[in-house]
Amino acid sequence: MNTTTKPAPKAIPMTPCKSSQVESYGFDAESRTLALKFRSGGEYHYFEVSHETFEQLKTCESVGKFLGSEIRGKFRFVRLDSGGLGQVIERERTA
To answer: Cα(25)–Cα(48) distance, rounded to whole angstroms?
Structure first.
């Protein structure tokens, strides 16, 4: 894993979430980017996510279970800094 700092991706409006793991989520349809902010403070942007997948996330019974089965390991992503600077601190990884 390379750790580096580079300019932040586009800001995505976030919606609060009822989950023990995920604080909020958002989706940018133009870039097909799913943003997830975790209660632990980390924010991740997942790329090439379909609108259908985002809709399923919004209506699922358990966001944590959905994340584990439908998101993690299936999409490229970056982790943003948790200090509010909006910089990418972890390079893209592929699933």
So the answer is: 15
* Residues 75 and 39: beta-carbon distance below 8 Å: no
12-53, pLDDT tens digit by residue? 999 999 999 999 999 999 999 999 999 988 899 999 999 999
CA–CA distance, 68 with 72 (Å, rounded to integer)? 5
The pair of three-digit structure tokens given for residue 74, joined into one six-digit string: 């299936």
